[in-house]
């Protein structure tokens, strides 16, 4: 399966960053290109929640599969999107940088696609990297 990956270091504690990132319904606050993010089903911080994401790329519907506060991870899947991908699952993780007190954040996904290399590039360079850069700027 192809995969996409990006990571960054944020100048804030892991618990502080995780407290913000774990909200499945706040994507429009920090991900560039997202005009609206709303929870259609479930609670914004509970597995099973479905969010609707509207932006320049079109309409996405995503379901939160797992949320682990101890490990500071969330995993979600795409239910509907305009991109030619199937079986998409992504995970975000926040870990402490123990020698500096900063947060290490990574975002990665696996999926199936006819043009896997192209889709991997779109997710890595067009979504994950700018998203993490924007998230990093929220914690000056």
From TrEMBL:
Ranges in coiled-coil conformation: none
Matching Pfam families: Polyketide_cyc2
InterPro entries xrefs: Polyketide_cyclase/dehydratase, START-like_dom_sf
CDD domains reported in the protein's UniProt record: PYR_PYL_RCAR_like (cd07821)
Gene3D superfamilies: 3.30.530.20
Alphabetical list of PANTHER family matching this protein: BLL4707 PROTEIN (PTHR39332), SRPBCC FAMILY PROTEIN (PTHR39332:SF7)
Name the record gives this protein: Polyketide cyclase
